[in-house]
Amino acid sequence: MHRIVVCSSCEGVDGPAFAEMLRVAIAEHGLTFEVQDHICMSNCARALSVAFSAAGKATYLFGDIDPDRDLADTLAFAKMYMDMPDGWIEDARPAGRLRHCLVGRVPA
Fold this sequence. Notes:
This protein has 108 residues and is an alpha+beta fold. It has one domain (2-106): Glutaredoxin, CATH 3.40.30.10. 25% of the residues lie in helices and 23% in strands. Strands 2-1-3-4-5 form a five-stranded mixed β-sheet, covered by helices on one side. It is globular, with a radius of gyration of 12 Å. 32% of the residues are buried.
């Protein structure tokens, strides 16, 4: 199962609302992700934090996500992530601004 985790306690942004927007958009686009919100992802200096993970795939952590403008780019990244067998994305240009928000990528 593919998973997106959204920080629910980042100060100054509504993480749970962004998680709900993602759930709706993921379903509308037919993507197979579980979207969770989680209290504190320890990336407080770069609120809002969002992570992607799946068994056998690289894990990604993003920060500085703007719920008002990054939904489409988050969906674009989700599609790329889902399509890569090992989750390792070399060219993230289709994810627009999100690629500049990457905090880290951890191999599977």
